[in-house]
Amino acid sequence: MSGTSQATIGARSDTTGRVPPPSRLPSLTGLRFVAAVLVFATHVTWNTSLVEGPYGAGIRQAFSLSGAYGVGFFFLLSGFVLTWTARPDDPAPRFWRRRLVKIYPSHLVTFLAAGALLVAAARPVATVDWLSNLFLLHAWFPRLETSTSMNGVSWSLSCELFFYLCFPLLYRLLGQIRESRLWVAVGVVVALIVGAALTARFLVSDQPRLEIFFLDGSYSFTQVWFVYFFPPVRALEFVLGILLARVVLAGRWPALGLLPAAGVAVAGYVAALYLPYLFGTGGVASMWTAPLIASAAVADWERRRSPLRGPVAVRLGELSFAFYLVHLMVVMIGGQVIGLDRRFPPLVGFALILVLLAVSLALSWLLYRCVEDPLVRRFSRPSTDTNGRVSGSARRWWVPGSAASDRRAARR
After folding, report:
1. Looking at the whole model, is its pTM more than 0.70?
2. What span, in angstroms and rounded, lies between the C-alpha atoms of 313 and 319?
3. Cα–Cα nearest to 234, from 100, 103, 95, 73
4. What are the boundaries of the region Disordered (predicted)?
5. Which residues contact 213 (CB under 8 A, 6 or more apart)?
6. What is the pLDDT of residue 214?
7. Which residues fall within 8 angstroms of residue 180, CB to CB, at 6 or more apart?
8. φ, ψ (nearest 5 deg) of residue 209
């Protein structure tokens, strides 16, 4: 194969004169928390009515799609980071084990918590909802009650699990694309993403109409599910992230600074608010975040100034997965305690929102420290033989001679 070999996808050619790509991208870690807060903003403004008057209506409209935008960012980011840190000789079972340890224990804890809350509230849950959610299969069901069952945000983990299962094969296949044709491949994936939205709009039945959140009966849930929940369609964003990482590693990303890239992401979100729903959410909207991901990676690689690289931003980013899993339950319980129909003056309402944010952060820290971090450290380490030596296949994955590298890679 000309252009690039499978063995050099994760490494930059020495002829470029630049330093090798860093193993960690702290700016992207910082961005993870920004995306998680965008998801929180949608849920807290649409599941409660804490701020009265035009201020409340304004923030509800402003953040109506921020949750979808944040989730799409995570899908792109997953493909990007996994490709950035991948090793072609890493066995697929070990990769799957690391990813499962990363997401499933925290999912199980929040699944049990959500189940306990539903039982306490005497809310009936169908057996298919319990089982499909437990095994992260619920996003495959074109049924609102199933796709959003239990802990409502966990549907995205169903998509992520599908991405992880496909990644070893995708990594090999997409690794065969010549560097000179990477942008063509990006264009093909973008066309497929737009095509998915067009398919949902014109080929998927719009009956029965769905009236929920801000959809005002314009679409059926099947249309929304196809664009927003269906794992193979959302996998297009994951693939776009893989290709984006290859573009950056190949030195073919244009010189776009972090601030202009952030401007593109903000402008894309504003545009999404005025587009038809199927084109303002899912993959079509997620594409606007691609320049920000690539530019943040380049900023870390070239050690440019980045406000997302600070220790507080990185720590919050490390908590983002746990925060994502716990925040909706906090919002729902907080709304019940405060009163779903109660409205407050802006200052009081915003203060209550900050309280819910703080409680979510505290619980996410607890979930991260007690479940996610220790299990990742324990089960993502390279295997050793009976004499305590790292096995040959494991040595090929880990950066040799560095315990710190082992710990960093274990968190990926």
Report:
1. yes
2. 10
3. 73
4. 1-23
5. 46, 64
6. 61
7. 3
8. -70, 150
